[in-house]
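Translate sequence into structure tokens.
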Amino acid sequence: PATTLKPHPLRLPTLHVILLPLLLILPRMTSSLSSPVRSIPVVGDSTVKVGPGQFSTIPADLKKRFPKISKFAIVSDENVWKHYGPALLKGCKDQGLDTIAYQIKPGEKSKCRKVKAEVEDFLLENRCLRDTCVIALGGGVVGDLAGFVAATYLRGVPVVQIPTSVMAMVDSSVGGKTAINVPAGKNLIGAFHQPRVVYADMKLLQTLNDKQVKEGLAEAIKMGCIRKPKLFEYMEKNAEAIMKQDPEALSEVIFDAISGKADVVSQDEKERGLRSTLNFGHTIGHAVEALPKKEVLYHGECVAIGMVHEMAILSEMGHLDKKAVDRITACLKAYGLPTDIPEELKVADLMHKMTIDKKNKNGKIRMTCVTAIGASKPDPIPVEEALITKYLASLKKQ
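Result follows.
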């Protein structure tokens, strides 16, 4: 008789073997593809939205977030505007938002009284009232200037920050510091005015050159030094990927640095104590930045120089181990950041600039006191002018 072959039943273990790896991988693939935008609360209703690819959604978010605003005024510089301005303006108008725009010349020279007045006159000419929201589209100069305009225009209107540089993303756009420069020094005239929202979209950094990227990363390294040891260690180990703007690595650094600053600002919004520690490297760094030099140095590069030499002084005072100084210096160098004070700068000129630093109290120069990588004292400490002068003079002899 003919034999009938019965079909072999498919066993459940075989299905598990096939499907389980897919089930494990799928959530990761979904997470990677969706690139979720994460929110970081700062002070009051001020929020930072961090994540790539959100630029095109900003106009719709503005419409939802500001139902009582009747006019939006974009302030940008000519370089940034070419890349992102027309798309933002069109997006706002497509959402039915009454939107105007003003472009300033790029560079630190625009962060002054004259240009601030020009922006204000533009707003007045366009009949902008208290139901106007200023949008700062650009780097630190645009953010500081537009933020200060918003702080003082009609005694204060809302401001939104869309940072387009690493420096602005991790530092200047977050926390509400706004200011202009004057002949006596940087950021000496300004106000605290919290942005209602900061849109930190890493895709807006793709037009930056290496010098612009690394100067912003100096501020992230600074945050690692004063408060976030894991951030420092991550940057120490992943310099190559971060400098190449690997999406995952750069997102990690920017989110961590912003979180650190937001935490400090939430505890000390008006810089009565703790927030002053964010100025690590800025005592010497601002002095270097304010003086004329042979080579153009960006803010972050000057801060890197300041960090190295403030650490050396702190080490002489017994606050910081030399191994930590060497390790932080090596990390800064790994990002191609300068560490030497330009030789053409005179000690007397540097000291003069330091005597009008905003952190000073009772006529004493003060510096952020880093005690270990990721740790610092809650208030800057006074440092004798004689010690700083002696240290700077010793560099001239080397």
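Note: The radius of gyration is 25 Å.
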